[in-house]
Write a structure and sequence with these properties.
0% strand, globular, 13 helices, mainly alpha, single chain
Length: 302
């Protein structure tokens, strides 16, 4: 009992530090949860949230899954999100390993600043930039393609290229930020391990493979677990600012579908049903990822 009391006293300042964040999370994320009842009602805004709205059970879910494009929307979401997770994890790891090998401090800081900068630009601004540089008529990318004898590519208007453009632009925007996280993990590795490996005759590549990568394993697992919770997101702000009806076939995702159902078509019940389903599946995914990390890698967040 005394040990528990001393531990609580020692950790009390830390709990007080996170208290404002916990309160904000409760107020803005948990209190509004009563709105999930709309997913099971034939909701009429004129009657209000607590009005006499007919209860229809799973009717909204049935309606959503009866729509002809629902399967395609879920498939697009999974494809885009999985590619973002895989490539968005590998690229920062490779970049952080390369930066770790850079011996010039000036060059290292310059590169870090350059690749980190796009992370601070919102997708509203970036979408305008991408529309300009990827334009099939006047964009610099297509100008280069035409210079080498190729045909212009409509990156944001052709279903063959739209998903790849989404993934590439998302990785380009975020890999600088993620590489900082992995660089921080690298700096935490005990230098004695590198010295021991060098004495054993390991070259730089072997040191990277046997010392650096295992030392980064914990943070890599953590980032993958956190990303699993976003598996059904696929980036609404990015897709919404870049897509158009001509690329709905490969670019329409769950969040854009919810947006059209709820705000454009005023079908609040079905849109809430899709949002609720997405939240439940995301919770199950992140819980499963954490369970696998705990069972297979003995990884614990708490």
């Amino acid at each position: 009992m005394r040990n528990k009391h001393s531990k609580l006293k020692r950790e009390l300042p830390l709990h007080l530090m996170i208290l404002p964040g916990v309160i904000a999370l409760f107020v803005f994320s948990y209190i509004p949860l009563y709105g999930i009842f709309i997913a099971f009602q034939n909701f009429n805004p004129a009657k209000g949230l607590f009005g006499d709205n007919p209860w229809i059970g799973l009717g909204n879910f049935t309606y959503v899954f009866s729509l002809p494009n629902t399967g395609r929307v879920f498939a697009n979401t999974l494809i885009i999100a999985i590619l973002k997770i895989i490539i968005g994890t590998l690229v920062p790891i490779i970049v952080s390993l390369m930066l770790n090998e850079c011996r010039s401090v000036t060059a290292k800081r310059t590169i870090q600043t350059a690749i980190y900068f796009p992370y601070f630009i919102s997708w509203i601004i970036l979408s305008g930039i991408l529309l300009d540089i990827l334009s099939p008529s006047s964009g610099i990318v297509n100008d280069a393609i035409k210079f080498f004898g190729g045909e212009p590519i409509y990156f944001l208007g052709d279903n063959r290229y739209f998903q790849g453009t989404l993934v590439a632009s998302d990785v380009w925007r975020n890999f600088g930020y993620n590489s900082v996280v992995y660089l921080a993990a690298i700096t935490g590795i005990d230098m004695a391990l590198y010295e021991a490996a060098s004495i054993d005759g390991a070259n730089r590549w072997q040191q990277t493979w046997h010392v650096t990568l295992p030392g980064m394993a914990t943070i890599v697992i953590l980032m993958v677990i956190l990303n699993m919770g976003n598996l059904l997101n696929a980036g609404f702000d990015q897709v919404f600012n870049l897509y158009s009806p001509q690329v709905y076939e490969t670019g329409d995702i769950i969040d854009t579908m919810v947006y059209r159902l709820g705000l454009e078509q005023a079908k609040f019940g079905p849109s809430t049903a899709v949002g609720l389903l997405k939240s439940v599946v995301s919770f199950l995914l992140i819980s499963s990822a954490y369970l696998i990390a705990y069972k297979k890698f003995d990884y614990k967040i708490f």
